Amino acid sequence: MGIETIESxxxxxxxxxxxxxxxREDPALITGEAExxxxxxxxxxxxxxxxxxxxxxxxIEGIDTSAAEELDGVLAVxxxxxxxxxxxxxxxxxxPSLKNPDRPMLATDRVRHVGEAVAVxxxxxxxxxxxxxxxxxxxxxRQDATVDQSDALDDDAPRVHEEFDDNVAFDFELGDExxxxxxxxxxxxxxxxxxxxxxVIPNAMEPRAALAEYKPSSGDLELDLTTxxxxxxxxxxxxxxxxxxxxxxxxxxxxxxxxxxxxxLYPDEALASWCSMQVExxxxxxxxxxxxxxxxxxxxxxxxxxxxxxxxxGTITAVRVNTIANxxxxxxxxxxxxxxxxxxxxxxxxxEIPSIYCNVVGSFTNTxxxxxxxxxxxxxxLFVVERLIDLGAREVGMDPxxxxxxxxxxxxxxxxxxxxxxxxxxxxxxxxxxKALDLLDYDDLRxxxxxxxxxxxxxxxxxxxxxxxxxLAPSKIAGSLGAQAxxxxxxxxxxxxxxxxxxxxxxxxxxxxxxTTYAQIVADELGVPYDDVEIVESDTDxxxxxxxxxxxxxxxxxxxxxxxxxxxVVEKARKxxxxxxxxxxxxxxxxxxxxxxxxxxxxxxxxxxxTQQAYLAQDLPEGMEPGLEETAxxxxxxxxxxxxxxxxxxxxxxxxxxxxxxxxxxxxxxxPQINPKIVEGQIHGGVAQGVGQALYEVAEYDDNxxxxxxxxxxxTVPKAEHVxxxxxxxxxxxxxxxxxxxxxxxxxGTIAAPQAVVNAVVDALEPFGVDHIDMPLxxxxxxxxxxxxxxxxxxxxxxxxxxxxxxxxxxx
Amino acid sequence: MxxxxxxxSVNGTAHELSVDSRTLLVHALRDELGYTxxxxxxxxxxxxxxxxxxxxxxxKSCTLLAVQADGREVTTVEGLAEDGTYAPIQEGFxxxxxxxxxxxxxxxxxxxxxxxxxxxxxxxxEIREAIEGNLCRCTGYQNIVNAVEYAADHMDQEVxxxxxxDRVEGE
Lengths: 812, 171
Hints:
The structure holds two protein chains of two kinds. Chain A is an alpha+beta fold. In chain A, the strands form seven sheets. A seven-stranded mixed beta sheet of chain A has the order 3-5-1-12-9-10-11, with helices on both faces. By secondary structure, chain B is an alpha+beta fold. In chain B, a hairpin with a 2-residue loop joins strand 1 and strand 2. Chain B has helices at 25-32, 88-95, 105-118, 124-130, 142-154, 157-162, 165-169; strands at 3-10, 13-20, 51-54, 57-60, 72-75. Chains A and B meet through helix 1 and helix 16 of A and helix 1, helix 2, helix 3, helix 4 and helix 5 of B.
């Protein structure tokens, strides 16, 4: 059962905010009219293709480009020796203990991960450019590689960066270690798990692409880019290619998904720009899918030991977490933030936990660099928390739903300060859990589970009561945690003389429907028809400043910037209305797009009439500037903390290891919903990616650093048949931290789903004594877990479950 | 590299063009003829973003050579709407929020139309099976299934019987 979409002509102007208005982005997308980067052609355009390392670790002894240069249609071949600009890709986040090695856009003496760029070919067409790549002869001397993050910390591990003593990128800790250790010593119950949150690849459907045109006459660089944050690229590129920021124009046309992977500045975009400066013609580069596997930032990659301590009655007293995070070969833009400040502060989950301690060691390896992927740090944290919660419940013999409820932070306790350095804005966790239990028909489900077990069938239910930190912005807080840029957001609302509106925002949507939801916000604030509001983003010339879209920040930070600037427009208009209606400003009411004198509703002006007067400028208050547009740089005081409870119901065949979904329910609280249909769509998409990680996805390297899962045929991107049908519902707890009360939804599904699925499978296999299986839960790994546990724990399973085992036909 | 003069009928419009032996159909459509609605996601026939109809049947244009399409009828996303009116499949995707970034959507709609031509009233399972060669990373598929069901409900018998996609090819 879905939410009905509403055509824009049918929305009530009073109810525009919160309406499931259909997306205005769609007409161009469903007719093929929409323009993605690779769709764009420019006169005199050339094509770039990149020579990439096929080795995980090698020294470069020589590069012979002569055969490629001689090829008809090849304009130029460049290696790192030709680079006459700084050419180093920066990182955007610092930590006190961080080692930050140089990351060249073209490797000169050594390659450190498969796919690292070694040379580029510029040619008249894309086929010839690829031919040129095949003709470049690189003489490599292969070196020993290190790919596993724990092994990389061994004293004798090959060093990824020879200038450092070891492969430790950083050593980070948070929380009170002594108090946590004391709590564990005094605990009545403890549980522990070693788990791996495997490395995954975002796989946006549109491969990354760049079309750069440098104009020697003016020194301007025009750059069309598959990016989530054009302004960030404009901010970072000058230091790489030596073109000043004000001469760089970055535009993100239609962008075919990003999920974080189109946030970082990569060597490729800088290379295309630099090549255009060299050949003085437009240069287009479009990644092949195999290039996206070898160069798009990968994600997660944690090895963790998590422990939970409880008292006699099942009250949690402490959580202790030790994690080794794989950073890859270089520090990508947000790499230092993700496993540290976006991870450890979420380890309190939805629970009141007096003591928490977390240590994270980041290690360099000969693998593709790691960066943002939907959730970024928070899925890793909540996976640990929610696996520990299930293990804790099992340890004290409580139902997992009741164990959660017993330990939830109370609804009266907000704002709630956790022991890991964050203060939750608002929350009410029990209603979301209750709704999930209702949707599951939980009591009935547990009864059926018992009955089916008697028949040798294994049903399992898994919960995930997650929390996330969204609205990534507070510049001061982000700065104190290591951000190298302010993370505010910019909004500009311009009323045109005719009464229509253009609103500009510094975020940059890539499938989320910003042009729809932002228009809903602005129309509501100004009281104008929804169809009269146009939204512009993703263009650094049109929108002077911005920070882009990632970390579910757009509604909470970008939406608030627009709401604030629209509010400023209303305030200026109110002054004009008061002046023209000859009333005191304090006596002017504003409602439904109309200014009226309090107590005299017939004395009124519409905001459109006021706008006309603002531009006519013949009768404005003394000293007021003409025109009606306002800008806001919105910087919130704190993050927002959406939450919810997801639950998966699966049936597992212990003989084959097959997992079949019976149900998936998602109850989310993202604060007030601007557009429920879009919120539902974001949940669906996020859950699909979370299920993908739980069951299918993993990036695997061999010992030499070769990527074994380097194509869509080796790496499972879930298909329609792989993703369960989902039931969604919501609760609504506004955030006090922004004017809209909104929280953020983009990452909820990926944060919630993996542990819902793993908990469900482990629950199903409880009779076999299985207490954890690492993702992805392949048929083999599930079968193996059953097999191992049945052997190892044969004596610990009770009689009934051993009978079940026998009934199942002998899982051994 | 040998050059070949070929003829393609795209969405009812005849085109003559010269291509290399190795030119992929998707690149001929996109780069030579400007039908950029068809997308390239994986160049291995896995993702389905490049799905078009060739003589009324869904095929992946990233692993077909342009010369293989010589003299044949091609339908791309640009040919789905008729006289400014969306085809039922397009309307379904819009109404049911069956797209987010939209990159897989053209291929997804053409694959769905192929299904509806063969099976005008598919079950959810049949829809999921029919689009297994088309990957979507945004929507979680549920609303895509709803969009295809919407299209099935809104296709009149005649259109459904003669195959949906033929409707636009006959322009």
